[in-house]
# Entry
Amino acid sequence: MANEGFFEKVYQVAKGIPYGRVTSYGAIANYLGAAGSARMVGWAMNGAANKDVPAHRVVNRNGLLTGKHHFQGSNLMQQLLESEGIEVVDNKIQNFEKHFWDPMKEL
DNA sequence: GATTTGACTACTA
DNA sequence: GTAGTAGCCAAAT
# Structure
């Protein structure tokens, strides 16, 4: 697992998100050591769209599906989350803290 | 090589 | 509680 770049790291963490869990960009960025650069995580997701990375499990700190607009469908992201047992209302995750998955603590 | 952009976060008013 | 601004860093143009 050579560090090919920032993106690969993000992919690794994103793939490490267990089923029915979600995390925030900042949490991933912090885990990568790029704390404060949550934008980089989102940017990395731009390439993750072509990978096997469950980007739908990654949301902003408010639990809001900010990146849903980047998915194929308009409500695909929400449906995927709901499919995992996560309550999503108005593009926002309910009980976000309950579903929140911290890579630093879990990994 | 400089400028722009970007799926964010935190602080301040 | 809401709104606006600043800071962050890396990739694309």
Summary: Residues 3 and 99 of chain A are 29 Å apart (CA to CA). The first strand of chain A starts at residue 23 and ends at 24. The two ends of chain A are 16 Å apart (CA to CA). The mean pLDDT of chain A is 89.
